[in-house]
Fold these 2 entries.
Entry 1:
Amino acid sequence: DTGVSQNPRHKITKRGQNVTFRCDPISEHNRLYWYRQTLGQGPEFLTYFQNEAQLEKSRLLSDRFSAERPKGSFSTLEIQRTEQGDSAMYLCASSLGGSDNEKLFFGSGTQLSVL
Amino acid sequence: AQSVAQPEDQVNVAEGNPLTVKCTYSVSGNPYLFWYVQYPNRGLQFLLKYITGDNLVKGSYGFEAEFNKSQTSFHLKKPSALVSDSALYFCAVRDAAAGFQKLVFGTGTRLLVSP
């Protein structure tokens, strides 16, 4: 169990630029989640994959956000035309299916700063 | 829609004393309830969960939580606090009946254990 890995750890970008984050879940986990956390708040759900299928998507996820999980392994989260309001910590988590599927393992996150 | 309230931004306790971190929830169906802990510069870590069964749930690091359906509460407790327990604690809920995977987190409670 090497844990959930997220890259990069930090990303600074200018408003209007596109950014992409990567998440590598724990290898045997078939469920993958993206959350967003701002200072002083708890994580907010963005989207959920079971294998390669994106099964849930929050209304927080505007058209500028897109997530993929090709082949049901790693996932990417892309933000197009970034805005200052996108500045946040983007968290990825994974879990097993079945009776243990309620225990999420989180990565350390990608801190996005939009200037 | 589900929601979680953590009424205390910070809880202060002396080492060796019992601690309680409060959480109340709102869901339309049966709740799945969780506590996660966040240490500085580290990802969220699972502490414990209530799905069904005994109202008193035991978790990692000596923590436990009591599910109270009538009061819609799920308070986190530990009989004897350690300085190393100082961290940010998040309560979360999932509506089991809704069929969605998203967790709704509270805003977090900072626990400060003094020597």
Note: Chain A has a mean pLDDT of 93.
Entry 2:
Amino acid sequence: DQQVKQNSPSLSVQEGRISILNCDYTNSMFDYFLWYKKYPAEGPTFLISISSIKDKNEDGRFTVFLNKSAKHLSLHIVPSQPGDSAVYFCAASPHGGGSNYKLTFGKGTLLTVNP
Amino acid sequence: DTGVSQDPRHKITKRGQNVTFRCDPISEHNRLYWYRQTLGQGPEFLTYFQNEAQLEKSRLLSDRFSAERPKGSFSTLEIQRTEQGDSAMYLCASSTNYGGRRVYEQYFGPGTRLTVT
């Protein structure tokens, strides 16, 4: 079963507008959530993270929102730029100890920002 | 910090051959992870090292796979008797809790693309 779900395989937005990427999870043991950006033939690039004790984290144009009761998080990019076009992965990690902070990823959402 | 590096970037091999990949983590990152990514999927966890100790292996890691991190620095992932189903991108990531860093934030290398013919 998929513990981290990104239900939108693709999203297309206009340059300058807001991009909203969504992610749902099922495992209540997840404590940390991360977003990665991936270009073809490259490894994932870390963008932003959030701990379950927070509901919002902001870094420049990127903001992540976490709704623990709904087991839902979203990444907002504003304003969107053509260089943001990539596949975005949502990932989650349980708290340490035996979990070793290994990440569980969603299948990704392809974002296309049109000039 | 210099980033995570992986070598080779691409490997084409014939079924039944052995292959070995290398990962150099970010300097002083004591935690090292291997993941595998296939087309249309997100990366999937394979194994985890803390310093030189291999502390966790996924059930995805069959007996044909072995990983080492002999001195707690670089790591190698070997696949013996490769099969076509092993074709994937193999990703290495590292993290640390030293210096107040968030241990759950993993930084990935560029990956090794394996094609088994």
Note: The interface with chain A takes residues 4, 6, 31, 33, 35, 40-45, 48, 50, 55-56, 91, 93, 95, 102-111, 113 of chain B (CB under 8 Å).
